[in-house]
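Example record

One chain of 196 residues, shown exactly as stored in the release files.
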Amino acid sequence: MTGLRPEHAGDGKPRCGAQKRQGAPGETCTFVAGWGTDHVGTGRCRLHGGNTRNQRTAARAEKADQEARRLLAQLDVQPVDDPFAALSRLAGQVLAWQEAISRIVNDLGDRVRYEGASGAEQLRAEIALYERAMDRTGSVLGMIAKLNIEDRMARVTERQADALVSALEAALAAAGVTGTQADDARKAAARHLRAV
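Predicted structure tokens for this chain:
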């Protein structure tokens, strides 16, 4: 077992945080999270049940969650203003989360199960996270399919294009542009909108 006592850990390290049995009311353990266990940095310390099966499972799930969040933070997810596009953005995040968990599961190789303290075979916490990510992905994509978001977004885009054409017409009229010049300006705007 490895781990440092808090006086050797340095500032900023996560702490066990378990309620102390002795000491002032509300006083919590200041040992490094996971001290004296095989999951140093997450979960409870050895003195507060960190080596129990449940605590080890919880610590593995927490580590997998932290790693997935780290990977997700590296992905370039752009915000949108349109409410229909916001749901599409959510779908992108859900898919990115699933991909992040997928990478962690792939790194496990054939180590998807382990022997618990009682000797029984256990499924790793990362697998449960991946299954939940798949369920969420299916739910969001199913919602998008039911709402026919793609067609609605196309209609929003058409309305935006109509508004731009109306604005162009008003600008041409206000500037006194008529005849061939106005036709050329409309054609140029149409070409540009099609290209976009």
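Notes: The longest helix spans residues 149-175.
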